[in-house]
């Protein structure tokens, strides 16, 4: 049990004395600083546990000039965020990394363009130390906002926005190899003997969708434009695009969808038209969102990206920026993670 008398709050000095270290060393450990040897860190943490020490948030902020909180901004309506497992997996990765560094996650959602004024006021108000932002569109004002107020920010996805200066040099971001993954998916369909391969693209104001479309075109250089339809990364959008493709190209024998949710919408339409998957039409998705890909009937062949791992990397990059760790090896200013094809029954 912590050795704490009623009405008496343990002090940092008491923690330092119990651990046998200086007050400065105890402060560095308690406030998440670096450069303390591992055995001393453990001594301070043990003293904190034994004494029941709880840092004073106001004093901590004065010393560190940090709030201990990070904003996570998702540029999508709430209904999309809570229906697409991509977002929950990325937030999970971010949350785990922030929690391990005693940093709080503050979720900010963008329902419509008017929300950006609210977000700018919040970020400028000093409530958070930095921001993590993903699912941005090319006309998104957020990059200009964060530059204007000097907010350290790491982005999920390759920069492609046009708002603000249009300069992307030095922007920290984490992304998957979208183009390479798309190429692998299309090559796999060709290896299965498919000849009329269609593509359901994501919204083309997002770089992930553009890169996946480019990967499709890299392999099928003379692809019929009628075999390409744009969706919106939702199951309903995939269903609409699939119906459009069947009207234009009823002889298609394979579909590469730019995410798993659109692939499930396409699957529903194909089965509704009496077409067997993969007998009549092979189908490949993108993401490997297990709850979606494995529960589909048949389970989806899909391109796997490490969504949770990308969340970890985004948070790690931001924390290193905030801690001003210079020249540290391991994670550069931008990271592109590999993808891999996961073969299941739909192709």
Description:
The structure is a single chain. The chain has 347 residues and is of the alpha/beta class. The chain is 43% helix and 16% strand. The protein is built from 14 helices and 12 strands. It has helices spanning 12-19, 23-30, 38-51, 57-64, 78-81, 85-100, 115-124, 142-149, 178-191, 207-219, 235-248, 260-272, 290-293, 307-322; strands at 69-74, 104-109, 130-134, 153-156, 172-176, 197-201, 228-230, 254-257, 282-287, 301-305, 334-337, 339-342. The protein has a 6-stranded parallel sheet, with helices on both faces. Strand 8 (254-257), helix 12 (260-272) and strand 9 form a beta-alpha-beta unit. Helix 6 (85-100) runs parallel beside helix 14 (307-322) and helix 9 (178-191) runs parallel beside helix 10. The longest helix is centred in the first third of the chain and has 16 residues, at 85-100. It is elongated and about 80 Å long. The model is unreliable at 163-168 and 325-330 (pLDDT under 50).
Task: Give the helix/strand layout.
Elements: H1 12-19, H2 23-30, H3 38-51, H4 57-64, E1 69-74, H5 78-81, H6 85-100, E2 104-109, H7 115-124, E3 130-134, H8 142-149, E4 153-156, E5 172-176, H9 178-191, E6 197-201, H10 207-219, E7 228-230, H11 235-248, E8 254-257, H12 260-272, E9 282-287, H13 290-293, E10 301-305, H14 307-322, E11 334-337, E12 339-342
Helix pairs in contact: 1-2, 1-3, 2-3, 6-14, 7-8, 9-10, 11-12
